[in-house]
Structure formats: C-alpha cells, structure tokens
What does this fold into?
Amino acid sequence: SPSTFDCSSVGGNTVTLTVTDVNGNVSTCSSTVTVEDNIFPNASCQPVTVQLDASGNASVTAAQVDDNSSDNCGIASMSVSPSTF
It folds into this structure.
C-alpha cells in the first residue's frame, strides 16, 4: 500500500507490504518504489503569419506557434526560438 501511482508520484515512494497468515498473524515491511516519467512531450506546431510593425520588427510567442502540444504528465513550459524578426 499504496499500489497505484500517477504523475504526482514521480520519484521515490515508500510502500508497505502487509502479509497475513491463515491464523491472523500479521507482518509488514517497507520498500521504495521509484516512479519514472520517461515519455517525451509531443511538440506540435502550426504555421504563423506576422506583420512587421512601423519599425520593421515582429515577434511571435510560443502560444501562437503551439498546436495542442501534449505530455502525459502536463507541460511545464514552452518557448519558441527565434521569437523576434
């Protein structure tokens, strides 16, 4: 116990094994279950058109280029490079 894990469990988790015999005698021990997230995020991009401003510059954000990127445990951050033109 516990016997199921999710993204919030990444890292070391202490679990307890409880063994009960037919006469009701109980013994326990503890072990560490290490949960790893080795699945890379799925980066998905879409084309973006920007207009130059009066100074001849334009910029884009990661949110503009993103096309529903995903990850099994959630995306921590996104960036786009270059972002200024």
